[in-house]
Amino acid sequence: MYVKVPARTRGRLPSAVAASRGPPPAPIDPSPGASHRQAPNRPAPVTSDHVQRRDLTIADAFELTPRVVPDDRGLFLEWYRAEDLAAAAGHPLQLAQANCSVSRRGTLRGIHFADVPPGQAKYVTCLAGAVLDVAVDIRVGSPTFGQWDSVLLDDVDRRAIYLGEGLGHAFLALSDGAVVSYLCSTGYDPGAEHGIHPLDPDIGIEWPAEVIPLLSPKDAAAPSLAQARESGLLPDHAVCRSFVDSMAR
C-alpha cells in the first residue's frame, strides 16, 4: 500500500488505496459488470483479450485494465489500442498530442479542463510509480455535477483512465518519480484551458491525508467550483453531450 486515507465522504477511492484504512466492507470488483452505479449515455462494457473496462460513477469516464504478459525478462503490455478505446468511448480518440509528466511525491496537478467544443479528452496511465487520478464532473446541468471518482494508476496493474470532453482532471503523485503519460484529443490551447482548485471543500476530493500536496502557483490560485460557475467558465452538460454524440455518428 502506498498511503493511508480517511473514510470517504463523497466520490469514490479505488479499492487498492482505500484498503489501507483497514478491511473494507466489500471489495470493489474491477471487472465489467461489477456492482456500481451506471451513468447514462454509455456504450456497453468492453472486454477483450487485451483489456477490461470498468465504468466510473461519472458518465464519459472509465478505467481500462490491459492484459500484462510477464516473463523472466520483464513484461509486455499494450496500453493503448485504438479499436478498444473507440469501442469503450463510443467514438475514436482523435489523437492530437501526447504529454508526459514526472512528479515527486505530493505533487498535485489540476483540476484542469478545456472549453467545449472542442474540449480535450484524455487517456492517462502511469508508467512508473503511482498516482491517484481523479475525474470531476464540472458540466453544468449534469446529474452528477460536482461529484468525483478516482482510479489508482501505477506500474503494477498498469491501469489507464479515460476522461471525456468537459470533465475536470487532477492527480496526486503517491511516489517519487511518478511518470504519467496522457494522450489528448486536442493540442494545448492556453486561451481555452482553465482550472479549479483541487482542494475545494465543496468538491471534497479525498486526497490521502499522509501526503502533503504541492501545487503550482497557477493551480493554487485557481477558483473554486462555485466561483468558476459564477464566472461562466464551466462547460455545459448538454453542449458536451451533443459534441460527444456527434463524434459517434
Class per helix and strand makeup: alpha+beta
CATH homologous superfamily grouping:
Jelly Rolls
**Which regions contain 5 or more consecutive residues with pLDDT less than 50?**
1-10, 19-44
User: How many H/I helices?
Assistant: 5
Describe the sheet with the most strands.
6 strands, antiparallel
Radius of gyration: 17 Å
Alpha-carbon distance between the two ends? 43 Å
The whole-number mean of residue pLDDT values reads 85
Secondary structure blueprint with pairings:
Blueprint: H1 15-18, E1 51-55, E2 61-66, E3 68-71, E4 74-77, H2 82-89, E5 97-103, E6 108-114, E7 122-128, E8 130-137, E9 148-154, E10 160-163, E11 167-173, E12 178-184, E13 193-195, H3 217-220, H4 225-230, H5 237-247
Antiparallel strand pairs: 1-2, 2-10, 3-4, 5-12, 6-11, 6-13, 7-10, 7-12, 8-9, 8-11
Key terms:
249 residues; alpha+beta; Jelly Rolls; 5 helices; 13 strands; 13% helix; globular; disordered N terminus
Q: How would you portray this structure in words?
A:
With 249 residues, the chain is an alpha+beta fold. It has a single domain, classed as Jelly Rolls, CATH 2.60.120.10. It has five helices and 13 strands. It has helices spanning 15-18, 82-89, 217-220, 225-230, 237-247, and strands at residues 51-55, 61-66, 68-71, 74-77, 97-103, 108-114, 122-128, 130-137, 148-154, 160-163, 167-173, 178-184, 193-195. The strands form three sheets. A six-stranded antiparallel sheet has the order 1-2-10-7-12-5, covered by helices on one side. It has a five-stranded antiparallel sheet with strand order 9-8-11-6-13. Strand 3 and strand 4 (74-77) form a beta hairpin. It is globular.
